[in-house]
Amino acid sequence: MARQKAVLLLLVCVRILGSCMGDARLQKTTCRVASGKADCSRMNLDAVPRDLPADITSLDVSHNRLHALQASTLALYSSLSELDASYNSLTTLGQGLCESVPLIRRLDVQRNQVHLLSDNDLKSCSHLTRLDLSDNRLKLRGEPFSVLNNLVWLDVSRNKLTSARLGSRPQLPRLATLVLAGNDIATLRADDFSFLNESSVLVLGLSALPLKEPQCLRTNDCFKPVAGLRDLMLDGSNLNPQVLSSLCWELSETAVRNLSLRNTQTLTLSNTTFQGLGKTNLTVLDLSNNQLSDIPKGTFQWFPLLENLSLEHNNLKHLTNGTFLGLRSLKQLNLRKALTKSHMSAYSVIDDFSFQPLVKLEYLCLEQTVFRNITENVFAGLPNLRRLDLGWSSTGLRTVSNATFAALAGSPLLQRLNLTGMAIRKLGPGAFYSLGNLTTLVLSHNFISQRLTGEEFRGLGSATELHLSFNQQNISLTPTSFVHVPTLRTLMLARALTGTLDLEPSPFQPLVNLSVLDLSNNNIANINSGLLDGLHQLSVLKMQHNNLARVWKNANPGGPVLFLRDARNLSVLELDYNGLDEVPLVAFRGLWRLRVLSLGGNLLNFLRDSIFDDLVSLRYLWLQKNMLTSVRRETFGVPLAGLAELRMEHNPFDCTCDSVLWFAEWLNATNASVPGRATGYVCNTPPAYFNRSMLDFQPDSCKDLRAFQALFALSQSLVLGLMFLAFLMHFQGWRVRFYWNIVTNRVVGMRDGGYNDLARDRYEYDAYVVHAEEDKRWVERSLLPLEDEQFCFFLEDRDAVAGCSALANIVDNMRRSRKILFVVTEALLKDPWCRRFKAQHALHQLMDESRDALVLVFLQDVPDHRLSQALLLRRAMLKRRCLVHWPLQRERVGAFRQELQLALASSNRVR
Ligand SMILES: *[C@@H]1O[C@H](CO)[C@@H](O)[C@H](O)[C@H]1NC(C)=O
Ligand SMILES: *[C@@H]1O[C@H](CO)[C@@H](O)[C@H](O)[C@H]1NC(C)=O
Ligand SMILES: *[C@@H]1O[C@H](CO)[C@@H](O)[C@H](O)[C@H]1NC(C)=O
Ligand SMILES: *[C@@H]1O[C@H](CO)[C@@H](O)[C@H](O)[C@H]1NC(C)=O
Ligand SMILES: *[C@@H]1O[C@H](CO)[C@@H](O)[C@H](O)[C@H]1NC(C)=O
Ligand SMILES: *[C@@H]1O[C@H](CO)[C@@H](O)[C@H](O)[C@H]1NC(C)=O
Ligand SMILES: *[C@@H]1O[C@H](CO)[C@@H](O)[C@H](O)[C@H]1NC(C)=O
Ligand SMILES: *[C@@H]1O[C@H](CO)[C@@H](O)[C@H](O)[C@H]1NC(C)=O
User: CA 336, 338, 339 angle in degrees (round to 5)?
Assistant: First the structure.
């Protein structure tokens, strides 16, 4: 117990402390002066400041501690026409107030302690047009208001006045509004309003008075001086039926048009209550908040001219065909919350034909009403009905069948039918078939769960708006869902759909006039690129909170789904929270008119250059809460040029010169609205800027980098070029060499050719071929064909002179050959004969004659060290053109031949 108290005490302390601090925060220390108005409210003043500009016309000193308005101080501000001194501690208006401020027109002393008000107080206030004296303790001495010849508006509410009589002789000739609410006036006497004899009051506020029977009973004297009265407020008065009936009789000679009887708590009506008003032209009657439970038949029969009746928030149990009898001119009937069900009582009932007397009714509001059911003829006989609202009413309606609203066939002008939140589960075929002029049908917030075949909307030939949002995501569409409503301009399907939208043709195809389409919150994952085909008028498309990430991926089978391809008039596109991590390069192509693009809450990290380049009309771009690291001119230059608002906060920006330099400068300089500019744009990398605002980014640090960047670009392209060359040589080198050889051969070959011819004379063979026994087949197949063309080879097996020693043979024939050609394979390297002698001799000859006479044909890749071991040769010792590789690929054999021919034909001189 003690602990609880302590906690309570603590809470109270904190509360007091908090409110004090709050006040301190609110309190200004100097008056705000702007365009002739001085605001000195809530400054804890105990006197009107003397240091304000002399020419101010309006002074607000409300909510201070003033005890008096010193005439001498006010005299400093002689141009003052408005003075607000409400919420102070004034006990008197102070003599000579209006002498010091002769131009004053509006004076507000609401909520003070003004007690005695005498003739002198308002002397010279004849310019006053508006005087608020409400919430004081007024006691009138003499005729204080008699000088106010220009007063139009007077409020003396809640002053504990016991009589409405504010003067004994006629005065206030211009008064139009008099508010007497909340006083202790219990009776109205015959001459109470006689002081208004010469005025023409239009509005009389008599709310919250403890009225008893008027004393001027049935003499019609009470309101005679205010016979021109138009509006009478009697709200919150505790009226018993007798008093109300008498008051109505008192009003019978007035011009009253608008009678407000709200909040009278215990009102009971009978068929004669309003009889007295029968002679008036009453047009507006407000009976809301009265706990009315019964309206006897004929209650409103006295109001043939009534146009607007409100019965909002009552407890009605039963509406019959007699309830509204006589309301021949009624245009609006407000029954919002007028019928209810408590757990004690049975359901309220609206009988068939209840509204039949209302032949002029245009608007019937039955929002949040509870009644048993919509029977077949409830809405019968409303030939002028234009709008019917049943939103959030409870009627037990489950299935809208073709009978439910059949009676509305008698309301050919009906344009709007609002069936929001009525727990409807199903729409039957032809549910609205008789509503041919309906333009707006609202079915949001129901439990409709079905496949829409299109039959549901048959007959709605003029519908332009169809709301189906928030239907628990249980509606599935078919290609024919909307074939009977081709005039639709607005179709709302937020959180309504289930199943796939990947339909052929698209359900929206018939809607050629569609301008607004809401498909948000549907978890849609499957669509095809024809979804919006033909919707050339579409201007607003909402698809946020779906699952469209896959359809825009490049890796999507068949490529990204470009469903916006035909929606060229889009002005608003919302795609937030779709898990998008990719945007196809051409996704926004041609959207010249797009003004709003919203992509917040996705996973976008990299946007390709120029994807936004067609969005020249963009005014609002929302990309907050994505994974963007860089904002570069190449991507954002166009959309950011004419922007009114950018939202890109909460992205993990990489604050480097490369990524955000351009953006940081834009952000610093732009006039566009950027919510959270100072706190929302936080750097994630590099570590130097981690968790700091992008506005701290130093653009100067990038200046040096620009020269460096040029250098970098240069060297980078160099490196890339070399790499490219290297790769080219590696993979396509043979081809390059092949062409090079052909070219050089064409040009240089002539000379070499001459030399060749010369050399022919000296040599008998073009080449002495050394090969291993195992490679004989290759030699025959691949080398010998060259002989036919132009060369003549020496082959040991074929050309050696029999009988001569092998040694002599070799030596002689090598001399007689211009080149020595080794067919290099592992087999050759292992052949001792070859190794020991032939190679050595060949080398010898090479040195001896300074000839460049060796040609190696590699059939296998042989490491250099093996080559030097076996043949005492290194690749480096020979010219490159003398090393020829037998290719593995067939298509390269031609090139090989060419190379070999060149090698054999080349000169032997060492250059
Ligand atoms: C009611 O309206 C009619 C015609 O508009 C007018 O002649 C008549 O004087 C009005 N009655 C009252 C009481 O204002
Ligand atoms: C009022 O209702 C009573 C019955 O409830 C009926 O006798 C009387 O004629 C009605 N008065 C008028 C003016 O309709
Ligand atoms: C009102 O309904 C009652 C039956 O409930 C019927 O007798 C009466 O004729 C109806 N009155 C009118 C004006 O339709
Ligand atoms: C309305 O409710 C009543 C009583 O429950 C029932 O007899 C009647 O058939 C219902 N009418 C419709 C149209 O549901
Ligand atoms: C339908 O009625 C509901 C409440 O009853 C309201 O909130 C909603 O705005 C209305 N819809 C239209 C389109 O008028
Ligand atoms: C209403 O639907 C029923 C069957 O559901 C059908 O027999 C009847 O003809 C329909 N009425 C109209 C007017 O279409
Ligand atoms: C639509 O309203 C016009 C009058 O504006 C009327 O002539 C026509 O019959 C109505 N159509 C339907 C189907 O109610
Ligand atoms: C922001 O703008 C101001 C003046 O317009 C300039 O002095 C400042 O250096 C700018 N800061 C950045 C980060 O561009």
Answer: 120
pLDDT grade for 752, boundaries at 50, 70 and 90: very low
If one residue of 318, 319, 320, 321 were mutated to test the ligand 3 pocket, choosing by the most ligand atoms within 8 A of its CB, it would be 321
For atom 2 of ligand 6, which residue has the closest CA?
402
Q: Are residues 740 and 813 in the same domain?
A: no
Cα-only R_g, the chain? 51
CB 247 within 8 A of CB 239: yes
Of all atoms in ligand 2, which is nearest to the CA of residue 298? 14
Residue 252 near ligand 1, beta carbon < 6 Å:
no
Question: Are residues 591 and 557 in contact, defined by beta-carbon separation less than 8 angstroms?
Answer: no
Per-residue pLDDT at 897: 81
Domain membership of residue 412 (yes or no) is no
**Ligand 6 within 6 A of 402 CB?**
yes
CATH number of the domain within which 775 lies: 3.40.50.10140
CB 108 within 8 A of CB 85: yes
Out of 712, 730, 748, pick the residue that ends a domain: 748
* Amino acid in the structure at residue 383: P
Instruction: Name residues contacting ligand 3 (CB within 6 A).
Output: 321, 353
- Model pTM? 0.74
Domain endpoint, select from 748, 771, 802: 748
Phi first, then psi: give them for residue 146, nearest 5 degrees: -70, -20
CB of 354 closer than 8 Å to CB of 325: no
459 in contact with ligand 6, CB cutoff 6 A? no
Average pLDDT over the chain reads: 87
Is 755 found in the same domain as 730? no
For residue 409, the model assigns a pLDDT of 94
Whether 880 is in a domain gets the answer yes
Domain check: are 860 and 729 in the same one?
A: no
Integer Cα distance of 719 and 709 in angstroms: 15
3-state secondary structure of 409: helix
Task: Check pocket membership of 308 for ligand 6, CB cut-off 6 A.
Answer: no
| pLDDT interval class at 214 (50, 70, 90) | low
Please tell me the residue having the least CA distance from ligand 6 atom 6. Answer: 402
Tell me the pLDDT tens digit for each residue of 385-401: 999 999 999 998 999 99
Which residues, including other chains, have CB under 8 Å from residue 372's CB and lie 6 or more apart? 347, 348, 349, 350, 395, 396
Residue 195 lies in a domain: no
- What does the pLDDT read at residue 18? 43
Nearest ligand, CA of residue 253?
Answer: 1
Q: Give, using CA atoms, the residue closest to atom 2 of ligand 2.
A: 271
CA 428 to ligand 6 centroid distance, Å: 10
Residue 863, domain member (yes or no): yes
For residue 367, the CA-to-ligand 3 centroid distance in Å is 26
Provide the number of structural domains found in the chain: 3
Residue 158 Ramachandran class (φ > 0 left, ψ -120 to 50 alpha, else beta): left
Neighbouring C-alpha atoms within 13 Å toward the C-beta of 862? 29
Interatomic CA distance for residues 34 and 746, integer angstroms? 94
d(CA 902, CA 592): 64
- What is the residue range of 764's domain? 750-905
Ligand 4 environment, Cβ below 6 A: 372-373, 375
Do residues 783 and 822 share a domain?
yes
713 shares a domain with 728: yes
Asked if residues 498 and 476 have their Cβ atoms less than 8 Å apart, the reply is: yes
| Cβ(437) – ligand 7 distance below 6 Å | yes
Alpha helices in 763-838 (DSSP H): 776-778, 784-789, 796-799, 806-816, 826-830, 832-833
